[in-house]
Write a structure and sequence with these properties.
With about 900 residues, this protein is of the alpha+beta class. The chain has 22 helices and 34 strands. It has a six-stranded antiparallel sheet. Strand 28 and strand 29 form a beta hairpin. The chain is elongated, with a radius of gyration of 46 Å. It starts with a strand and ends with a helix.
Length: about 900
């Protein structure tokens, strides 16, 4: 029955042979088939060579694991090639011939082998069965019958090999000569690494040279004999010093099936023995973790380190999980350490003497003081001895479990084996829980990014975008954050926003960051650590504490009140701080700074999520910047089209209300103006350009400036409008027709006002008398911008004291609610209710009536100009 399979394809190039060998070796080592790895690698190498070198085709290698061994198939694309068979009468190729040896080796080494053909492929397969060897006992026990004792040769030979600090053999006893065939004279002086066939587990970073530098080590590997065959041995290494103080390693080696001679038996506490006898069917995982097992990853990891510490009677324990690419280990649980500052700290896989970081094999350190940095996690914790073991699932490193003690020399290989036994029981459960947590985190991350994108896309306001960026990161991703912005490439980063989950700490962090140089605006993607805030905050807290104690000079009572905020700020920014660039349109526009409080680190998954968020936030912030810039430009241009102000006219009240349609528009197609002409006369105008928005506003600017210029030249009203009509037509395709009410007003000595009015296609001005009657104050004439030859005339209107002249644009009269429209009659009805009101009150009542007429927002520009001659009693 097939229990596992692995397959790979290799191109027809020479380097594929080495790649295929590594693939098979890694696969079989991962399956725990170390006994047959070498034979399988040799056979695969020959068969793949035949395919990719001699036949020149692609090769497919398929490894099938069975309960008894492994079956390996090598396929190529030359089914027509002649294949020598064992029963063939033709002699097989000689051993010195370059090709054709693969099938000879299959016949010599494989348990079974054969060749299968298909119309397009040829499959050469071989099967290797695992050797049947009695396993040596691992624990001490009662006397056993003779037939149950471990099987050994007639004489058990123990090879004693000693190597110097450089790994060269310095001693080689007689049993070593018998076991491996190398005479002592030939072996001494050679590096042991040349003789050792070290197992290459996938991703293994620890080799024989590293194992020789460990204080103690036990395990299996191979020694290449004089005949070229590999002898599987079980070895026990002990590192010693000679009388001169030089270190060397003594290696005791026996045949692997005689490992009981050297293997350290596992010590089982008395309590465990009774448990094993009473519950033979107990789940080893439940026995170690306890029942019920925690259903969450953090709970499982915390229970694991606590049980591991208790099992080895240690002072502390810790557990690290591998990142997805297995280049780093991340601290996920600890107990007994001075603080929790190590949580989520990352350790490079290949860091430290003895390559502790890889943690791919059990390791025991008798005294960390003698090997500084061997276990970076324990630096400065007071721990002296430590044992670490890997967590592996199907040969892949998934984590590392360690137990440490304050006393040196507490642990030996016996404890390492016990801890490894426990690690093997929990590795699969831990990996399953980790993958479940990772899946939940990724789903949550997708939901978080979708929501963040929606929020960022919902605003074009720069300040609101900055606030959203901070509020989305705190406290979901970080405890505090700061956003720096960069206006342009020549500008320095500016601290724009600071947020902490505790609002009382915001001012302290903002003050701290304002005193330190901002991080460099590096465009390189990804998070980078920024240590400056934590260092500066720590120094400030130290100085404040010293002054409060009178150690730095000066009275202590002056600084006592500042100790609390200073220490709180130092604690808030004392953890890991990272900087992510905000890059939009190939330019760094700012930095997003995320921070943790003292002793805390960021998880790798959180940093990856923050990087995704920073990309979206950068684009939203840049869009807000561009929108703000263009809005500012638009508003500046629009304001230039509005009259600078309304002049005060003695004897006449004037009120103007202007509303431009569209969000962000200050000027549209409607316009007004009131300006002095000279000799006590004032010009006024109210007009409506066809359409709304910027294009209509352009004609508005032309009309308003032309009116002022022409009126001050002394031209009459009709002449002014006729020249304006020509100017509009000169715009060609950009021209738009224009309705315009233009007039000149002269206040009179008797308190009245004389108006000369020209109404070119515009809604007629309405005159409100003191008795409440409303009448048009002009006759309609042709609008501007349509025909070249206009014949316009002006009309004279006299406003008596108390009279009101109301001028509006069609946005007022054409206000609609469904099929209803306010119209000229509706406007006149409203105006009749304004008797006795000031000009400002009249304009306000008209606008209020227009707004209430319909529930929807106005879709057209509106302008209202109200002029009133006060009565005599009002002047008094």
């Amino acid at each position: 029955m097939i229990t596992a399979r692995a397959a790979a394809s290799f191109e027809p190039v020479g380097r594929s042979v080495a790649t295929a060998r590594a693939f098979v070796r890694d696969t079989l080592q991962g399956w725990g088939f170390a006994d047959i790895v070498d034979d399988a690698v040799v056979l695969t190498s020959e068969l793949v060579t035949n395919a990719v070198v001699h036949a020149g085709t692609h090769a497919e290698v398929l490894c099938l694991r069975t309960e008894d061994g492994v079956r390996i198939e090598v396929s190529d694309h030359y089914p027509e090639r002649e294949v020598p068979l064992q029963t063939s009468a033709h002699p097989m190729a000689g051993p010195d011939r370059e090709g054709g040896r693969g099938l000879q080796l299959c016949a010599a080494l494989a348990t079974r082998w054969g060749v299968d053909y298909t119309p397009t492929h040829k499959h050469v397969w071989f099967q290797l069965n695992l050797p049947e060897r009695p396993v040596g006992t691992r624990t001490a026990g009662p006397a056993l019958p003779t037939d149950l004792l471990p099987l050994a040769d007639g004489r058990v030979r123990v090879a004693v090999v000693q190597v110097d600090r450089k790994g060269a053999v310095t001693a080689w006893n007689e049993d070593a000569e018998e076991l491996f065939g190398h005479p002592a004279a030939e072996a001494i002086g050679r590096p042991l690494t040349e003789l050792a066939a070290w197992p290459h587990t996938p991703g293994t970073g620890t080799g024989v040279a590293e194992a020789l530098r460990l204080s103690r080590w036990e395990g299996s590997y191979g020694i290449r004999g004089a005949d070229g065959r590999v002898v599987q041995v079980y070895a026990s290494h002990l590192r010693v010093r000679d009388t001169g103080g030089e270190p060397s390693t003594v290696c005791l080696l026996v045949r692997d099936h005689e490992r009981a001679v050297l293997q350290t038996p596992a010590r089982v506490p008395a309590g465990d023995q009774s448990t094993a006898q009473d519950g033979q069917n107990a789940d080893p995982f439940e026995v170690f973790i306890g029942s019920p097992a925690p259903d969450d990853l953090d709970g499982l990891l915390q229970r694991t380190v606590e049980r591991a510490r208790d099992m080895l009677d240690g002072d502390s324990a810790f557990l690290l999980l591998a990142t997805d690419d297995e280049t780093e280990l991340e601290v996920r649980a600890s107990t007994g350490l001075p603080s929790a500052r190590q949580r989520f700290a990352r350790v490079p896989v290949e860091a430290g003497p003895g390559r502790y970081g890889s943690a791919r094999m059990p390791a025991v350190h008798d005294d960390l003081g003698a090997v500084p940095g061997a276990v970076p996690l324990l630096t400065g914790t007071g721990m002296r001895s430590v044992v670490t073991v890997p967590l592996k699932v199907e040969g892949r490193l998934t984590g590392s479990l360690g137990v440490a003690a304050e006393a040196p020399g507490r642990y030996s290989n016996e404890e390492a084996l016990r801890l490894q036994f426990a690690a093997d029981r929990i590795a699969l459960a831990v990996e399953s829980a980790r993958l479940g947590e990772l899946e939940r985190l990724r789903r949550g991350s997708l939901s978080f990014l979708v929501e963040a994108s929606d929020l960022l896309a919902g605003t074009l306001d720069r300040d609101q975008t900055l606030a959203l960026m901070a509020q989305m990161t705190v406290p979901t991703l970080a405890t505090w954050c700061a956003v720096y912005t960069i206006a342009d490439q020549a500008s320095e980063p500016y601290l724009s926003y600071v947020l902490h989950e505790d609002e009382e700490l915001i001012d302290g962090i903002k003050s701290l960051l304002s005193k330190v140089a901002p991080p460099d605006p590096v465009p390189t993607p990804g998070a980078r650590v920024w240590t400056v805030p934590g260092e500066v905050a720590h120094q400030a807290a130290l100085r404040t504490s010293m002054r409060s104690l009178g150690l730095a000079g000066g009275p202590t009572h002056r600084v006592a009140s500042g100790i609390g905020p200073t220490l709180a700020t130092a604690s808030a920014v004392g953890g890991e701080t990272v900087v992510l660039p905000l890059v939009a349109r190939n330019r760094v526009i700012g930095m997003l700074v995320l921070g943790k409080p003292t002793d805390e680190h960021f998880r790798q998954e959180i940093l990856e999520l923050a990087e995704d968020l920073s990309r979206r936030a950068a684009l939203a912030l840049d869009n807000a910047r561009l929108y703000s810039e263009r809005t500012a430009i638009s508003q500046a241009l629009q304001r230039s089209l509005l009259p600078p102000g309304t002049p005060d006219i003695e004897g006449v009240e004037v009120e103007v209300i202007y509303r431009a349609a569209g969000e962000g528009n200050e000027v549209g197609g409607d316009f007004y103006d009131l300006f002095p002409i000279g000799n006590g006369a004032y010009g006024f105008a109210i007009g409506d350009v066809c359409g709304t928005g910027p294009n209509a506003a352009a004609v508005t600017g032309l009309a308003r400036h032309a009116l002022r210029l022409l009126a001050r030249e002394g031209l009459s009203g009709p002449a002014v409008l006729e020249r304006l009509n020509s100017a509009i037509l000169d715009e060609g395709d950009r021209s738009r027709f224009l309705t315009l009410l233009y007039g000149e007003m002269r206040p009179q000595e008797d308190g009245s006002a004389e108006l000369k009015v020209v109404c070119a296609g515009h809604p007629l001005p309405l005159r409100l008398r003191q008795d409440g009657t409303v009448t048009p104050a002009a006759e309609p004439q042709p609008l501007l911008g349509v025909i070249e030859d206009l014949e316009l005339y002006e009309e004279t209107v006299t406003l008596d004291p108390g009279d009101v002249l109301l001028c509006v644009t069609d946005g007022v009269t054409e206000r609609r609610e469904g099929t209803r429209m306010l119209g000229d009659d509706g406007l006149a009805d409203v105006l009749t209710t304004c008797t006795g009101l000031t000009a400002g009150a009249v304009a306000a009542r008209i606008m209020r009536a227009v707004e209430r007429f319909a529930s929807d927002a106005p879709s057209d520009d509106m302008a209202i100009l109200a002029m009133r001659v006060p009565g005599i009693h009002q002047d008094a």
